[in-house]
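Justification of resources, computational component.

The compute hours requested in this renewal are based largely on the per-chain cost of generating structure records like the one below. Each record pairs the submitted sequence with a full C-alpha cell output. That output is archived, and it is also reused by downstream analysis tasks.
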Amino acid sequence: MLRRPKPSDSEADLLREQQQFLTSGAPSAANVIRRPDKRRGEAGEAGEGGGEQNGEDEGRQRDVVSIEDLPDQLPSLTPAPPKKSRFKASRVTFEDEDPEARLDRHDTHISAVLSRIVERDTSSTPISLPAFTGMAFPKVVHRTENSSQVPLSSAGGKKSIFARQIAAQRLKEGKTPLHCAAEPTEQNLPPESSMDTDLCDDAEPPLVSAPRLVSGQGLRVPDSSGETLRIHTENQARLQTMSQSEIQEEQNKLLTHLDPRLVEFVRSRKAQSVPSSAPPSKQPGGKSSKERCPLENVSRESGFSAAAVLSQKAQEVEMEGTEEEEEGKLPTPPAMMEEDLPVKPQKEWVHMDKLEPEKLEWMRDLPAPKRKGTRKEMQARFDFTGSLIPPTEDLPTHLGLHHHGEEPERAGYSLQELFLLSRSQVIQQRSLALSTLANILSKACAGKYQPVLKGSVTSTLLDAGLLFLLRFALDDSVEGVMSAAVHALKTLLVCAEDEECLDFTFSWFRGLASFPLLPSPQEEQDEEDEVLDEIMKETAKEKEERKSDHDVARQDVIKGLLKMKLLPRLRYILEVFRPSPRIVQDVLSILTRIARHSSSSATQVLDCPRLMETVMSEFLPTSWKAPSSPLPLSVYGLPQASAMKLLRVLATSGRHACARLLNSLGVRERLSCLLSAEVSELLLEPSEALRITTEAYRLWAVAAAYGQACNLYIDLYSALVKELQSVHRALNPSDHLLPLQLQRVLALLSLLTQVTHTAGCHQELQAGMVSSQGEECPPPPPVSWGHVTGLQTSLLGHLKGFVNSLENPVQKDSSLTLIPAYLVYLEAYYHQLSRQNCFKPVETLQELEQLTSEVLFPLFSHHVVQDLMRNLRSSSVVCNAQSSHQGPETTPSLPGLACPGWRDRPGLVGPSSPFPLLTSLSLLLQTVTGIHKGLSCKFSGLLLSEPVIVYLRSCSQATPTLSHTRWLLRHEHHLLYLLLRLAHRLVPCDVEVAKHASLYHQVALVLLPWLLPGSEYLAHELLSTIIFSKDFISEGHSGGPEAVELGELKLHEETHHHTSPSLQTVGALLREACVQLPSIRGCFLTHLAHLESSVLVSRDVFLGRNPWINSHLLPELTGPTLPSDWPFLPLLSLYERTGVPDGGALAVEELPHGALQMVTHCLQWLLLLEVWREEALKVIPPGAKLARLSCVFLCSSDLFLERPVQKLTWGLFRLLTRRSRLDSLDLNVPPPGLASFLDLYSALLAQYEAVSFGDRLFGCWVLLPLQRRYSATMRLAVFGEHMGMLRSLGVTLEQLSIPVERFTSPPEDSLPLLRLYFRSLVTGTLKLRWCPILYVVALSHVNSFIFSQDAAAQEVEAARHNMLRKIYYLTDEALRNHLLLFRLPQQNSESGFDVYEQLPPIRAKRLESVLGLQAAGMSKETE
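The structure output for this chain reads:
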C-alpha cells in the first residue's frame, strides 16, 4: 500500500514516491481540471458538446507534472509580459484624447446595457402543467416494477433513476414528458449533419430528413421547427443541383474560412450522435462515416502514425511488407443493438438497462486482417513457436493468438506484448511468454528472420532489457516460470551448433585450444581520470565494480550476468529445485558458455560456493544405478556428458584450473571409473555412455596437454590397448551410433597424441632438473618415452587399414574422418622420437621410407583424396571472405562462432572440406622431411597440384577481414604455413617448384599480417626463413634489376625530358637490396623483439612442449599479431623515439647508434616490395604509405640528406607518383593511424622551413599535396602560414615527376586562396627564379580568375575587377605581362609557361570594360 508523504521527506523521497504512485496505476485523490479561458476563445464547448465531449477534453488537457522534462538550467528571472485583453487591443486610443471624454463615452448608463438584452422567444414552446391526482402524496414506486422506468434511448441523455421513473409514469398516463418538448427532432437526426454532409460526401449527397446541429430554438417565429426544416430543405435542394467538383470546392472554401476549433466541434457532435443513429449499412452508399470522410481519416490516422514511431525498444523490429494495398476497405460493422446481445438483460440487473455499444465491440467476431501498404514497415508478430506470422494471414481464434492489445484483428504477439505478458500475475502467462521468447531467440540465432525483418532481434531484445527480465524470472518461486527463464537464457547464450562445431574440430591440429568469447574491446574515455595523477587513477577492476549492472551488461552480457549473481542462483536451482532433465542440461550449457568467456569467468565458476561440488556429486557420481527408462524423469545421480564437457572447458582455461579439478574435485577418480570399464558395462543408455566416455577422453587429453593426469595412462594402459584393438569392430557402417563411435575414437587418438608429446619431454625435464641448481623447473611427468613406444605399431596398422578402405564406398567417409587424427599422432611420435637419446637415425630413416611408400604416397595419390582436394578453394574462409554466406545475427556484447548450418554448406568445417586431411598430412610431411631430407622431392606433387596452385593464387589476392568466422582462420593459417614450410624445403632442390617461388613468397607476405594471436611462432618462422630468402625473391637473380632499368630508360625516351640522375638508379638500388637481404632480416627481427615472450609461448604450443604450457585458452582476439604496415615498422619506431609531432625540432640531440643503417634497410625492403611485390602492400592505402615515409624527414634534421637515404627515398617517391598511382593517392581521407593528413603536413612544412636548405627531394614531398584535387586547406597553409618557404622551394618542373596540369586544373574557386596567390605575386614573395612551380600555379589561377566569363557573386566579381585594375597599373612590367598574357603551362619552356604575343580580343574587351580605356593594342614586352 502506498504511504502518504511526510514533512520529513526529502526531494528524492518525493520523486521516488511519485514514481511508485505512477507505476501502481492507482487513481489520484484529486484531479486538476483546466477551466476554459474565455479570452482565448475556449468557452462554449460545455453547453453544446455534452458531458462526453467535456470528459474527453478534460482527459486531453489534464495537467501532468513531469520532472524529467524540466530544463537543466534555471529559467530567467525576468518577469513574463502581462496578459493583454483582446477587447482592449481592439480599442483605438489617441495620445491627445481627453481622458474624461473617453470615460464618459465608455461609462454608459445601465439603461443602455439593459436595452440591448433580448429575451428568448417562448411562444412556440408548449407549456405543461403538473398532473392532478386524488392522492395527497404521490405513490411510492419501486424501481423493480416492470413499467417503472423507460430505456435510456427514449428518456434522452443521462437521466437519474428518479427522473426516468417520473418520465415513465407520465408516458403511462399519456402525457408528454417535460424534457421532450424540443428534442424529438434531435432524437431522430441522421448520423451526419448538413455541414458534414457538404464537406465529406464524395458520392451523391444523401437526403437527410432534418439538420443535426440546429433545432430551431430561439427563432422569433411561431413555428421554429418548421422554419428549420424549410431551411434544411432548401439546402438539400441546392446540394442536389451541385456537381461533385462544386461540392468539393465549397467544402475546401469552408474549411479555409472556418475556425479549426469550430470544425472540430462539428465533428465531435457528429461522433456523439453515431450510437443513436441508424446502422452504417443503411446509410447511402453502404459505407461507414469514416470511409465517407477522407479528411477525418487523414486527421485521425496522422496522429496514430506519429504515436507508432514513439514505441518502446521491443517494438523496433518491424516486418517489411511485400504486398500491394487493397483498393477497397471493408465496411465498418453496424453498432451492437439490444437484439444482437447473446444474453438479454433482466430488469433486476442494476445499471444494465443502458446499452453501451462501444464496450460491447470486443464481443464481436474479429474482422479479417487488413492488408497494409507494402512500402511501409509493419510490426512483427510471432506465434508461440517463434515463427513470424505474415500480416495478412487470417488464423482461427482457437489457437490463442488473438488478444485485446494493439491490432486485435492480427494474430500473434509483438515483442512488447510478450514483455508485458512475462510480468503477468498469471503463472501460465508468464511461462508462455518466456517460452515464446526462447523460441524467438532460437530462430534469430539460426538467422531465420534476416530475410524478412529489419534489424537484429537479439540486439533489440537486449536493448529492451531482456537480460534483466530473465534474471528476475530466475528468482521466481514457481518452478514452471523459473524453468522457462532458464531455457530462454540458455537459448540466448548458447548456440548448440557452435558447440558441435568446436567438438568436431577438437581432434584437429591444435583443435583443443580456443579463443575466449570476449566482446571486441571498446575504448572508454574517462574524463575524470585524465586530470588525476597516475597513483590516484582507478584500476580496471575498480572501474568495473563502480559501473551499474546495466552498463556492464550493455558492453558484455556474460560479465553483466556474473555481476547480477547468476552463478549462486544456478547453484540454488540445481541444489534445491532439482529441476527436470532438460533444465539441468540447460544450466550445464549456460555454465559451459560462461567458462568459454574468459579465464576469469572460468575461475568464478570454480570459486562459486558449492556449485562444482553439486555438479560433481549429482551429475558425475562414482556409482549409480541403471536408469529405469531411456528417458528418465530425473538425471540426478546419473553421469552426464554435459557435466563432463563443463569440466573440460574449465580445464582448458588454465593449468591451475585443471589441477584443481583433478586433485580437489575428484575428477581423476571419475575418469578412472568411466574409462576403465567397457561402454556396455556403464549401466547407461548406449548413446549417453558413448557421449560421456568421449567427453572423458577429451578432458583427459586436455589434462595430458599440460603434462597432468599422466599416471592414469599407466594405470589404464591395458584398457586403452583394449580400446585400440576394438576400433575396427566398433566402426560398424550399419550402426546408427556410428557418428558417436567415430567421435569417441577421435577423442582417444587426441589423448594418445598429447600423452606422446608429454612423454617426449620427460628426458629434457629430467636433464633440466639435474642442471637447474635450484632454479624453477617443471617436474618431469610420470610417463616416459618407453611408455608410449609400444602404441605406434598398432596405430600405424590402423592407418594402413583405413587407407585401404578408401576404396570401399561404405567405409570411405569413416576413413576420411579418422585418417587426419592418425596422421597427427604419427607426427607427434616422430617429432618427439628425433629428440630422444634412444633415437637411431638409420633405422628411423628406413622406417620413414617405408611409411612414405606404403602409406603417405598412396594416400596422397588416391583418387578420393584428389577429388577432395578440388574443394580446397570453395571450402576456404580466406578466399570466400567476400562471397561467404550471410552470417547469423551478431551482437557485439555477446559474440559467437557463427556456425549455424555448418553441416549443410561448403566451408572449412564442412563434411566435404579437405582442410583437416591436408593439414595433418602437411604437418607429418614437415616432420618427416625434417628428419629425412631425401624424401622432400617425393612430395613436390602436393605443391604442384592444380588445386593447390589455384588455391595459393586466390590466397595471394585475397583480403580477409576479422569477421564472424575469424576463429576458423587459424586452422587455415596452419595449412598455409605448412605448405610454405614444405616449399621452403623444395625450392632449393626442385626446379619445378622453384618456378612458383614468387607465388609462395607472395602468399607468405600476405599471410604474415593475417596471423592471429597465439601464432607468433609461425610469424617468427616465416620472417626467419621465407620472407627475406633470396630463393623466394627470384627476380633478384634472374634479371629483375636490369628489367627495371630498361623500363626506366623506355619511360625516359617516351617522355622526352630530363629527370634527376638519382631517379634512374632504381635497378642499382634493387641489386644492393638483394645483397643486403640477411641484414634486412636482422633489422626487422630486432624491431619485433618485443614479441619474444609471445613467440616462446607459441613455440611451446606448436612443438608440443606440454609441461611448459600454462593455458590452452588463446590470447584475446583483438586483431592480427603484426600490423598490416609492418614493413614501415623500423621507420615508425625511430620516429616515435626521436621525432616530435610538431616538426622542426628533435626530442634528442642526435640519432641513436645504427639509425642510418636501420632506415636504409627499411627503405631497401620497401623499394623491393613496391617493385616486385606490389600486391603484398595493397592493403596499405597510398596515402598511408606517403604518411609513413614522411617520417624520413621528421625523424632528424639531416637524415634525409644522407646519400643512401636520399637515393632510396627518391626511388620510392618516383614509384608513388607514377601516373597509374596518382589517381589512387587520396589525401582528403585521413590515413590509418592519423586524425587528419593536415596535421602531418603542417609538421612537414615547419620542418622544411627549419632544416630543408632547399633540398629538392623534400621540396617534391611538400609539393605533392598541393595538387588541385586535394583540400585547399593545405594550399592555404603554404601561402598563409609558411610563406617563407617560397623563397627556397626551387624544385623545377623537370625534377617533379607530376604533370603540372594537376596543379593548375581546374581553376581555383577559393577566393581567400586566390587573394593570397595575388598578394604573393605582387609583393614579390613568389618569384619565378625562387619557386618556379608555384609561380606557374599562381599565375595560372589568377589569370583564369580575372578573365573568367562565368557568372559569380557580387563579392567575387568585385574581387576580379579589383585585381584586374591593380594588375594593369603594376610597375613591374614583366609580372604585368605574365599575369595578362599568360596562356598555358608548358613543361618544356624555359619559364614553364607560354604567353600570348598580344592580348586576345576577348581579354582586351574584358580589360576595356573594367578599365574604361583601349587596351587592345597591348603587346608582349620583353623582360
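The radius of gyration is 45 Å. The longest strand covers residues 1382-1385.
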